[in-house]
Amino acid sequence: MNRIFPSCIWCVGLILVLACIAAHAQTAKPTPEEENEVVRVDTELVDVPLNVQDKTGRPILNLKRANFTVFEDGQKQEIAEFFTTSAPFEIAILLDTSGSTRSELETIKRAAQHFIDSLRPGDRVAIVSFRTDVADGRSMAVPEVVSRLTEDRDVLRSALARVSNSNGTPLYDSLIKVAETVFRDKPADEFRGRRALVALTDGVDSTSSGGFAEANDMLTEIGITSYFIRVDTRPFFEENLMGDCQTAIRFSVAQLRRYYSSFGANSKVERTTDFCKIGEFERLAVSKRLYEIADDEMKNLSRTSGGRIFEAADVSEARAAFKAVADEIGTKYSLGYYPTNEKRDGTFRKIRVEIKGLPAGAVVRSREGYTARRP
Description:
The chain is built from ten helices and 14 strands.
C-alpha cells in the first residue's frame, strides 16, 4: 500500500493540471490572427477594381496600398488584399455579330484578335458570340461560349475563326451566359477583383428571354467590371425601317413590348405587335426609344462596375476602341476587404474609395457597391 499511495497522488495531480489547462483554453481570448480567421470564414471578401487617372486621362501608376482608403456605407474598412496594375486579368469578350454588323464579320474578328494580342502574358480570355439555332422549324439567335477562359493564344485564334453571324441580338441572355458560365467558378487568388467583360455591341437587344435587370444583378453581384464598345448602328437600322412593311427590317415582339412598357402600365398609347400597323413616323419613335434604353443600360452597368463606354462610329473603329480598353485594363488596381457589417440581409452597400497623394483633377473610377447576399 505504501508503494501505491504516492502514485495515486501523482495521478490526481496530473488530472488537476489537465483540467486547469482545458478551462484556460475555453476562457482564453483568441489572438488577433485567430479573430481574423473567424471573420474570414463568416464573411465574404468584397473585391473593388478601380482605375486612377490624372486630369488629362493618363493612368497614375505606382500607387501603394497605403495610398488607398475604402469605405462601405461611410464606415472605414481594413484593406485585406491589394493588387497593383501588373497583376493579370480574366476577360470575357462578347461579340455582337447581328444586324448591321453581318457584312463586317471579318473586321470584327480582326479587331478582337488585335485586342487579344495586345493583352499581357498571364491574362486569360474567353470569347462569347451569337449563333442561329433552328428549333421546331423556327430559327432563333442564341448566345454561345466559343472559348472558355484560357491564355493559350492559338486556342483563342481558332475560336475566333468559328464566330459566325446570327439573325437576332440575344444581348441580355449573353450577359447572363457570361455570369453563369464564363465566370461561374470563384476566381483563383491572382484574379480576385480582376475580371472584366468587354462587349462590342450597339446594346439593343431583340431576342432574349431574360432581361437587363437580371443580367445587371448577376454581373454586379460577382464584381465584373463591364466595358462596352458601343457601335452606332442606328443610321443603318432606321434607313432599313422605312418603306414597305413586308421588306423593311422589323422590330421583334420583345422590342415592341420594351418600347410600350416605357410609357407605364396606365398609358393610353395604342399598342400593337403587328409591324405593318406601325407607320413610318412611329417606327422612328420606337427606334429612338430603343437606342435610348440601350444607352442607359450600358451607362448604368459600366458606371456602377467601374468600367466605361468607348464609342465607335462604325465597326471599322472597333480596333482603336479595343486598344483603349486593353490599355485601361493594363493599368487597373484592385483591392479587397472583409466588411465590418457582417449581416447578409440582401441590402445594397455603397463603396467609396479615397486615395492620398493624387494630383489636382485626378479621377478615380471604381465599383460603386454590391448587394450583401443572403445565406
